[in-house]
User: What shape does this take?
Amino acid sequence: MLPNLQSLLAPPVLERLTLVVNHVIGAEPAAVERLRAYAGHQLALELDRWPTLLPPAPPLAWTITPAGLLEWCGLAPPAQARLQVHVDARNPAQLLAGALLGERPTVRIDGDAHLAAEVGWLLQNLRWDVEADLERMFGPVVAHQVARLGSSLAAGLRGLARTPWMRPRSEADPPGPSPRA
Assistant: This one.
């Protein structure tokens, strides 16, 4: 049942994720120009050591279009992408918590060094101006309030991710569950 659910949910989620990424890339002409040089090349994100108890991760591969944007390759990824980014995903919850904290995961990159440098530039320099997008839809007052709410929520989630769920037990601790910090 879970693989069927995944095959139903993965395409729309990844297509929308691709739209968001393309929106961010498209807002920066320098980013579009950098990617145009690699039109037709494919890049893949490999989740190494993904837990077997979870449903398998969908193929995460994109083709760079002549417009300098990305197109998701679908559920049948290319046999060999020009650039492969390997992320250690043995603990997806820890990976997500690290992302909330703004930490970059440990990655291994295989493939075209020039394309890797361009992707690295994109990751370092592109930012999504959510407030500007909201302002176009709802006006400046609502956009500012929603952005403040989002920032507060993100800060709360980052704080939650930093909270140690249980501290290590020392010999001086009484038996029983570890106290929360």
Remarks:
- The first helix runs from residue 2 to 26.
- DSSP finds six helices and five strands in the chain.
- The CA atoms of residues 5 and 55 lie 10 Å apart.
- The first strand starts at residue 42 and ends at 48.
